[in-house]
Amino acid sequence: MAYPVRPVVEPAVLDGQSNGRLAPGILKATPGQAGGPVVELVEPAARAWRALCAAALKAGHVLKISGPASAYRTYEQQVVLFRQRFTTTPNGSGTTRRWEGQTWYLRPGMALAAVPGTSNHGRGLAVDTGVERDGDSGTESIDHGTLAWLIDNEEKYGFSHEVQSEPWHLHYFTGDHIPALVL
Fold first, then answer.
1. Which one, of 81, 86, 78, 121, lies nearest residue 102 by Cα?
2. Cis bond leading into 44, ω under 30°?
3. CA–CA separation, 59 vs 56, rounded Å?
4. For 136, phi and psi rounded to 5 degrees?
5. Where are the beta strands (DSSP E) in 1-158?
6. pLDDT one-digit tens code per residue, 117-136
């Protein structure tokens, strides 16, 4: 199943802002569904996310952000995540990144993470989502039906996937052009 991936146009509110160091006034607290965490996104991404979640709920899909750092990530959160997933010790993984003048190697079994200061989560435009199926505090992986619904509908709300390897990762891409279904 191929996920729609669209080029991102950033909203003007991000002009002059540094990745992971956004001015607090431009971040909007966005309540989670089904007991999910409150996260921060920039307007209009926050508005579009709320509209997408409402539409998904109406269609029988409860989107639930994975955790508090699954939307906006500060630079410091990006550093912690990167160091959890990468090491400077060669390990034959074949996946490397350059950061702080060193080569970093992806640890076995770990998902990729962006080099700190380059994450789209650091721009307040991306969300990592799952679903709520069992009523507990955790977030379950996206099921086939929810993923199919997202693929059919996410672009109408200004979201697309970013990479084919991450069905849970959505990115707001329409900048200051607010999709009609969000209005």
1. 86
2. yes
3. 5
4. -90, 180
5. 27-30, 39-42, 63-65, 86-87, 96-99, 102-106, 126-131
6. 999 899 999 999 988 888 77
